[in-house]
């Protein structure tokens, strides 16, 4: 497995694409409201991405029909925007990729629609907190499997389960590449497999189920839910390893 090591100027190009994702997610979090359809959310997101001089990277990728994955309630990832109307108390996963000058960025959040239940607040917090926990452990010389195991332990300790058969990934001049980074220890020892090195750029993205880890893909061949049929959550950042530690590229500087 050859995981690319990026030069500083390449990391800056990846940062530019990733910041466009972060700005779009922030814009949608501030403007998506109950009463909107998922198609309207997607159209708003695509227009904003293009206003930044970026291309919606997911549109047409592997045949996906939209620029924004809109994963509503029980849908954990890969939700296709349709005519469903958002209601108060819903939770909505937004996963966005952009491409600028041949380089890609990728990130995701799960947002509340108006006031949500304490149970759903906790569900969203698990995805966000496990993401930042995993990122905090990324250092040169640590193995990817150690990060996967740490994320899994964090999720299980909170009383949830990681979605299996989907994973974080490398990113660069393609939206997905080596390594694959599951949110659970797939096989072997955490002390096996490739080590993290300076210059690597990849996406960490915990996907949270309530009771069952097993995914079910719905009839549209995209929407992924848990076998338990309960609500899920998802968070993601693009990170680069610089000077031995993780730097989040997909965030807007305050």
Description:
- The protein is α+β, with helices and mostly antiparallel strands.
- The chain is 28% helix and 26% strand.
- It has four helices and 15 strands.
- It has helices at residues 8-31, 38-51, 118-136, 144-157, and strands spanning 55-56, 68-72, 75-77, 91-100, 103-112, 161-162, 167-170, 177-182, 201-204, 207-209, 215-217, 224-226, 233-234, 237-242, 245-248.
- The strands form four sheets. The protein has a five-stranded antiparallel sheet with strand order 8-7-9-14-15. Strands 1, 2, 4 and 5 form a four-stranded antiparallel sheet that branches.
- The longest helix is centred in the N-terminal third of the chain and has 24 residues, at 8-31.
- The relative contact order is 0.19.
- The mean pLDDT is 97.
Number of DSSP strand runs: 15
Q: Give the class from helix and strand content and strand pairing.
A: alpha+beta
Q: What percent of residues adopt helix (DSSP H or I)?
A: 25-40%
What is the global morphology? globular
Largest sheet: 5 strands, antiparallel
Instruction: Trace the largest sheet across and list its strands.
Output: 8-7-9-14-15
Oligomer: single chain
Count of DSSP helices? 4
Rg from alpha-carbon coordinates: 17 Å
Unreliable residue runs = none
